[in-house]
Amino acid sequence: MSSSTQACANDPASLRQGIVRSPSHRFDYTVLLVGETGVGKTSFLSLLANILAGHKPDEYVDLNDPENEQVGSPQHSQTKAAKVYELTTKNGILLRILDTPGLSDMRGIEQDELHKKDIAQKIISSIHTVDAILILANGTNPRLGFATSYALTTLASIFPRTLAKNIGIVFTNVMSPLSWNIDEVRVPEELRAARQFLLDNPAALQKNLVRLSRKEGISPAQVAKMHEVVAEREQVALDMLAELFDWLGTLAPKPTKDIIALYEQTQAIEQSTTNALARMQASSEHQRKLQQVLEEMKREDQDIAYYKQHVQDHVAAERLARATEAKEAREHLADVLRERIDESAREVQAYTEQVAQLAAAYSALALSGSLAAQIEKTVVLLDYNIVMMRQTGQPSEFVTRVMQSRENMQMKLEMLKKTQ
């Protein structure tokens, strides 16, 4: 490390006063804050706001927008919409942070799609370059839960390769490196080289301290001990943030146009696969009707043969004429159905080729390189959610809706695999 770099390195003492040093002498940074639902993105944002304001733990305040937060299950995203926050350090550096709704929302994959659309729209309207993407993940589960694995894979699928070196992962709820035992194999391969940080958020701990100190039966000694723990966690957090700001200072800002292009690519693939599946379902219905018509024609052939061989009066002649006329009408219908089946097959082929072209372009652009891998994780998460919903007695209509989403995702996955 050069002496000039050392002179610009951040340190806990300066951060405690709200001072951030920039090795590149820049005065503004833009960061995207993403992760699964309930992992502590907004709490992390509050920590940054308090540190940059020079607040001590007992001066911490919540940084949240009540109008952008919703009260409900922790398995639902508490942040309603993507929002840009602007934090200014004591020495005038502007930190713009895009706080985003969490993924793995238990209300369904459709909710995650709405969140991704909201993030893309906010980037289009407000974020033209980005310095870093910080992915927050729960660092307490060594094997990574279904939701965390899905969220990490999804994030790897929505960010382009051009941002690979600008991605960092903050593992939350980790008291020390010794208590951090994440199985690296379960982190998506595309994210294993990302810069990693560990955090046990003192802002969240301070909030719990205030709540617990008001409870009956808590002794002054216990409160004092909690203050010691928060102070200790603050020191460790400042060490981590110094490292994070040093890393941020080494990154070159990247245009967000590739994020938007990748999102538009996934939307085009979604539309093409939806169209192809719709035509496949229509073709299946035409096949069913054709089979029904052919069965009816067989019965009419039997009737015609019977009338010709066994009945020679005018009544039989009339029945023979009606049966022959009905058969001709059904033959015409069968021809129409065959034409529609052939037309559907051609349309499915065209959509499949379009999906293949779009998927190839996506693979060349996306960090993950494979949309199928992300959909596989989605199917696994939905299977897990279905089991949990049944075990917790969720209404049957909710379970049915998730099952339908799972079936739809499985069909899309099979179509994508055929194009590879």
UniProtKB/TrEMBL annotation:
It comes from Phanerochaete sordida. InterPro entries: G_AIG1 (IPR006703), P-loop_NTPase (IPR027417), Sigma_54_int_dom_ATP-bd_1 (IPR025662). This is AIG1-type G domain-containing protein. Residues 334-361 form a coiled coil. Residues 30-173 form the AIG1-type G domain. Gene3D superfamilies: P-loop containing nucleotide triphosphate hydrolases. GO terms for molecular function: GTP binding. Signal peptide: none annotated. PANTHER family: AIG1-TYPE G DOMAIN-CONTAINING PROTEIN, G DOMAIN-CONTAINING PROTEIN. Keywords: Coiled coil, Nucleotide-binding.
